TrEMBL record:
It is found in: Cell membrane. It is a multi-pass membrane protein. It comes from Microbacterium ureisolvens. It comes from the Bacteria. The chain crosses the membrane at residues 7-34, 54-72, 84-111, 123-146, 158-183, 195-218, 239-260, 280-301, 326-346, 358-378, 390-410, 422-446, 458-483, 495-519. The gene is murJ. Keywords: Cell membrane, Cell shape, Membrane, Peptidoglycan synthesis, Transmembrane, Transmembrane helix. InterPro entries: Lipid_II_flippase_MurJ/MviN, MurJ. Signal peptide: none annotated. This is Murein biosynthesis integral membrane protein MurJ.
Length: 539
């Protein structure tokens, strides 16, 4: 098996287990705080999302865009990159500690900023949760910093498998909560200080364990890192210049997310809001994480090496190959999940009616899944060439569309065009539309930089995948209706929702493979090869 094949299988297997345990964590959390219409659930979601937002700046921004390509380059230094990584780790740890302290002190302001639609008692509960959750920033950042360094050294497994331990810790803590206090506890007035400490403390402790466990694998890098406060030299100045654009890009993204959160907070207690949106995003990210990250991450390391060596032809080949490989999986994942939207949403809701309401949010997000997968490859190609300036501009446009559509959704509610229960879904539609525009612009800009990207070739492949996925999704939807639709057994409980979604997905995939075979899609053999490697006993 090739190095990329082995890495993809390792990351994919770890991601599958991580996401499955993450699903179980989400199910138990819904049993604790509820979902649709739960003011306590929305309060916890808002508070627990705050450190995630800062983690996004560190991981998706500075580390992925800048640090990984720089570590690849630093490997050619005489010391193998030891001095560079020591300085980066020291600087990163200092920044994380300062950010965590400042954010925790600003917890009341941050909660009010993200959720102005909450009532005073709900704001108070969310703020108390936030005091316990915001220290996660340090450990999210260390996890990202160590994990990306491991990835850059082609040690992919620990970064992918560590979240499983976090999920297990969280599940244990949440189950203890249910044993002590029962659930779901959806009303703000029912929460005591002990309950708050147990729930939020468990969430934070899981992140601590997730970060610490990575340090046990550091010896495999062969690097000896020590505190180094002499931050001049070995390329940190270049990182600063590159990170400047990345920082602005992520700030723009966080601003767009902030405004979305402010709009969605107005629906809390009346329909799907923060908690439902977060769970719909978790479902949305399942195929993205398993497929895009497991296949795309090793490609990114290889692509960075080819770009650094000036091998543009190889980079163009990497782009087309990775998009086609991602596409054959991500297209059917999108359509199959759409067919199973109600049973899948039932996993994170407490009734069939709530599952139907939540399914609209999931469907709205799914519109942007395929464009987001293509964007993963296109955007990281810019990063491989140490270009963070261009991604800033096409992301800025995307953020503008996100903000405009969020306020447009709110205007539709104010004009009584849609009900408040559809506000979160309308905001999600705007998110998806912005991703479509962003990937079109990004691809055009990369085409101008590198020359022909053979766009027609991989677009033809994507079109072939969609052609096969349409009847596949139709078959899955018919199975859902045959099982009774929203009133049937697939929406009768969380467990049966998971089973129903799996059955519908399996039928859709089987039909999809059949149609790809009829269309003689060459990508089918590549896809089946990757799947075989995931089977037990295969290498």
């Amino acid at each position: 098996m090739s190095g990329i094949g082995r890495a993809s299988v390792l990351i994919g297997a770890g991601t599958i287990v991580s996401r499955l345990t993450g699903f179980l964590r989400g199910i138990v959390l819904v049993a604790v705080v509820g979902a649709v219409g739960s003011r306590a659930g929305d309060a916890f979601t808002t508070a627990n999302q705050l450190p995630n937002n800062i983690y996004a700046i560190i991981s998706t921004g500075l580390l992925t865009a800048v640090i990984v390509p720089q570590i690849v380059k630093a490997a050619s230094h005489q010391d193998g990159g030891r001095a560079f990584i020591s300085k980066v780790f020291t600087l990163g740890t200092v920044v994380l500690l300062v950010a965590a302290v400042l954010a925790t002190l600003a917890a009341p302001w941050l909660v009010r900023l993200y959720a102005p639609g909450y009532a005073p008692d709900q704001l108070a509960l969310a703020t108390t949760f936030a005091y316990w959750c915001l220290p996660q920033i340090v450990f999210y950042g260390l996890y990202a910093l160590v994990g990306e360094a491991l990835n850059a050294r082609r040690i992919y497994g620990p970064f992918t498998w560590a979240p499983i331990v976090n999920n297990i810790v969280s599940i244990a803590g949440f189950l203890l909560f249910l044993a002590l206090f029962g659930g779901p506890v959806t009303e703000v007035v029912d929460w005591t200080q002990t309950m708050i400490v147990l729930l939020a403390g468990t969430a934070t402790f899981g992140i601590v364990v997730q970060a610490v466990i990575l340090f046990f694998f550091w010896r495999r890098t062969g690097l000896h890192v020590r505190p180094d406060f002499r931050w001049r030299g070995v390329g940190l100045g270049q990182i600063g210049r590159l990170a400047g654009w990345t920082f602005l890009m992520v700030v723009a993204g966080q601003l767009a997310g902030l405004l979305q959160s402010r709009v969605v907070s107005e629906a809390s207690g009346a329909g799907p809001a923060a908690a439902v949106s977060a769970n719909a995003w978790l479902l949305f990210m399942l195929p993205y994480s398993i497929i895009v990250l497991s296949i795309g991450t090793p490609y990114f390391t290889q692509l960075s090496e080819h770009a650094h060596a000036g091998r543009d032809d190889d980079v163009r080949a990497d782009i087309g190959r990775s998009i086609r490989t991602l596409g054959v999986f991500i297209v059917i994942a999108t359509f199959a999940l759409a067919a199973a939207a109600v049973p899948a949403s039932r996993i994170f809701t407490n009734s069939a009616d709530d599952a139907v309401d939540a399914a609209w949010v999931l469907l709205a997000y799914l519109i942007g899944l395929v464009p987001l997968a293509v964007l993963f490859v296109i955007q990281r190609t810019f990063y491989a060439y140490s270009d963070t300036r261009t991604p800033f501009f096409f992301t800025l446009l995307q953020c503008g569309i996100v903000i405009a559509t969020a306020f447009g959704a709110r205007a539709l509610v104010d004009a009584d065009v849609i009900g408040l229960e559809y506000l979160a879904a309308a905001v999600a539609v705007g998110q998806s539309l912005s991703s479509i525009v962003q990937v079109v612009l990004a691809t055009w800009l990369l085409h101008r930089r590198l020359g022909s990207l053979a766009i027609g070739s991989w677009m033809l492949s994507l079109g072939r995948f969609v052609l096969a996925a349409i009847p596949a999704a139709a078959a899955g939807w018919l199975v859902f209706l045959w099982f009774g639709g929203p009133d049937g057994w697939t929406a009768s409980s969380q467990l049966l929702g998971a089973v129903g979604a799996a059955v519908i997905g399996t039928v859709s995939i089987a039909v999809y493979v059949g149609f790809l075979a009829l269309l003689r899609a060459p990508e089918l053999s590549v896809a089946t090869g990757l799947v075989r490697r995931l089977l037990p006993g295969r290498r």
